[in-house]
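Box 3.1 A note on notation
Throughout this textbook, protein chains are presented in two layers. The first layer is the amino acid sequence; the second is a token string describing backbone geometry. Keep the layers aligned when reading.
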Amino acid sequence: MGGEDQRWGTLAVAPIGVGTWSWGNRLLWNYVPQRDDPLLLHTFQACIKAGLTFFDTADSYGTGKLQGRSESLLGQGLSRLPPGQRQRVTVATKLAPYPWRLGRHGFCKAAAASRQRLGRPIDLVQLHWSTARYAPWQETPLLQGLVDQVRLGGAKAVGLSNLGPRRLRRVAGWMADAGVPLRSVQVQFSLLSQQPRQPGGVLEVCQELGIRLIAYSPLALGLLAGQYTVKHSPSGFRGLLFARLLPRLEPLLTLMGEMAADHGSTPAGVAVNWCRAHGTVPIPGLRHQRHVHVMEQALGWMLSAHERQTLDQASRNLATLMPQNPFQSA
């Protein structure tokens, strides 16, 4: 069935994770604390019951003065769990390499603040993006700081985010020499953002080096969820993107709907299982209990090799449609 947790060293990671970028984000997701906090905490409880026990967050998640709100909400949810359930939850957080976070000790206060918001040590601490493009001299000292977090017990493992294949090889080699193996790298990956699986890409490097790939935005901001049309799309920035791309996606979404019906699922379930079929751990953003139900159902099945290949072919001309993260390194 494919729903068993994976072992990443000392970490147990569910095969489908939960992305929490929207938790506290007003800009793209219209977050309102009074309305959304109770909803998100109920969503957290539903995730635990469904076996979705791997959560990804970041110390920068939360718009403006709400920075850190995603971690705080996770901390509240964790505090309400019985000890046995709490121990089965794995939390990954990303620390942002802001210009004022300098040197080997640049993440010390940030990591401590994340632990305080979460109410526990960090399971997987990740460098949110590489500084190679604007301050290459910062990267190694900051990574040394993350390795120190593991050695001092503030985190269990180290991961990366938004790194390309060349940078990934270099950092993975450095960490192996330092005696703290790199466990994961997190990149944008979906049917509309397939750069990681190109020859020599991040996915190939991960498979070669035994590093886990975490796929963020596997639903392409909701474009692959199957619930929107040109006449019914979100407001704001997402709406502009949807209006431009949805007309081109109709054949693919129709195919995904047909596959979903065969599995008693939805296009969103097909989208995340396409990521799984390529050996990644997708972390779709979940804000409502209905989203949780879809992902719980998706845990119970996998695409066949033929279905995956059919989707690969159908998405070939759409594989680079999504805007890329400007912090992604080479």
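Residues 104 and 208 are 29 Å apart (CA to CA). Residues 6-318 form a domain with the TIM Barrel fold (CATH 3.20.20.100).
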